[in-house]
Task: inverse folding
């Protein structure tokens, strides 16, 4: 469960019951992934469009953001 | 008949016998005690409440009593029993009324699972409520008392009850607790409010209680909708400053100030997210109560 505001997002993780405060970009990543798996390039394009930024400004940060979300057990890598 | 209309001796007799049933907001407390000072405190601070019938269902059964056996040799003490079991360590007998209030708060905070319960004051005007979460010492109760003395309706100075079914804020309209310097500050600011004598040397210092205003009590069945979340901070000499507080951060702070957010799980997340969504969130620094009142009277529209 995810809610986003202008500044950041909050996410409720069902298995653990934990609530996480996420930067807006990470919340948007999660929002896109709730619709289904996607490659990093597509995720970068989604977040960039939502934040009205060039894709290049977001693209390099996506792997690290995904890694952090993985550490929180909010996402996992999909099988190729 | 209102409690204040009973002779103190009659109230003492009722408390020492089968007890009294006291309704505060949506809860009925069955209270028993042979401690005379407690009857005086209830008569003063719940004077505008009416007693419920003896056979009325009670949500909580509590008893404040003096110790049995050899414990009385350690000086006069009072125990708080909930459903027949001692819930806390004893306190000095002089602290019987504060113990009643703290115990009632504990009963609600630990058992009322059909509400998301936030450690925050909540007041209302024109159907719109301000929630003021704050750690101890921030001036929350002082500010709450001042606002209530100037026309805001008191829902609670301590426990904000958010009804899980629909997100409405449910009033308690119980006595406001003041500590230390705030006692004299409010006595001077609002001399017409009914205040108990201070009780000293509690874990919170000196403590006094203000009776809930009559109009707040008259409207205790009337819920309110959240419109603002204001994080107050008293700072001596500070200018009055109202600044936006990020909503996601407000959500996390409200959750951390909740007694049962974690226990309630997903539903608490949804209810709290809706509350924040529909509220404007601010930090509020102040040193002057008059300026604070003006600032609250002109809060930006939600």
Result:
């Amino acid at each position: 469960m995810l809610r986003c505001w202008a500044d950041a997002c909050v996410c409720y993780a069902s298995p653990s019951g934990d609530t996480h405060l996420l930067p807006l970009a990470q919340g948007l990543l999660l929002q896109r992934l709730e619709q289904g798996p996607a490659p990093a390039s597509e995720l970068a394009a989604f977040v960039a469009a939502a934040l009205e930024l060039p894709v290049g400004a977001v693209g390099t940060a996506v792997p690290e953001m995904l890694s952090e979300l993985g550490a929180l057990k909010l996402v996992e890598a999909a099988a190729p | 008949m209102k409690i204040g209309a009973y002779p103190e001796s009659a109230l003492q007799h009722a408390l020492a016998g089968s007890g009294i049933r006291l309704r505060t907001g949506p809860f009925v407390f069955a209270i028993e005690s042979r401690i005379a000072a407690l009857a005086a405190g209830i008569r003063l601070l719940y004077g505008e409440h009416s007693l419920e019938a003896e056979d009325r269902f009670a949500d909580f059964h509590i008893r404040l009593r003096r110790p049995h056996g050899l414990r009385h040799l350690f000086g006069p003490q009072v125990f708080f029993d909930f459903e027949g079991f001692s819930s806390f360590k004893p306190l000095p007998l002089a602290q019987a009324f504060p113990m009643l209030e703290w115990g009632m708060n504990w009963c609600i905070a630990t058992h009322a699972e059909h509400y998301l319960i936030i450690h925050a004051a909540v007041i209302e005007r024109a159907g719109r409520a301000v929630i003021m979460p704050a750690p101890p010492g921030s001036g929350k109760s002082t500010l709450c008392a001042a606002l209530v003395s100037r026309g805001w309706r008191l829902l609670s100075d301590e426990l904000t009850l958010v009804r899980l079914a629909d997100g409405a804020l449910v009033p308690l309209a119980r006595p406001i607790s003041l500590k230390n310097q705030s006692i004299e500050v409010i006595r001077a600011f609002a001399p017409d409010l009914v205040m108990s004598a201070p009780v000293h040397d509690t874990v919170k210092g000196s403590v006094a209680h203000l009776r809930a205003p009559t109009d707040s009590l008259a409207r205790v069945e009337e819920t309110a909708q959240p419109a603002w979340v204001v994080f107050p901070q008293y700072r001596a000499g500070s200018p009055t400053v109202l600044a936006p507080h990020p909503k996601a951060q407000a959500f996390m702070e409200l959750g951390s100030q909740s007694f049962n957010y974690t226990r309630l799980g997903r539903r608490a997340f949804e209810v709290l997210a809706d509350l924040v969504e529909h509220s404007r969130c601010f930090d509020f620094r102040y040193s002057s109560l008059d300026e604070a009142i003006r600032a609250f009277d002109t809060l930006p529209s939600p």
Observations:
- The radius of gyration of chain B is 19 Å.
- Chain B touches chain A at residues 246-249, 251-252, 255, 261-262, 265-266, 269-270, 273, 276-277 (CB under 8 Å).
- Chain B is about 30% helix and 30% strand.
- The mean pLDDT of chain B is 95.
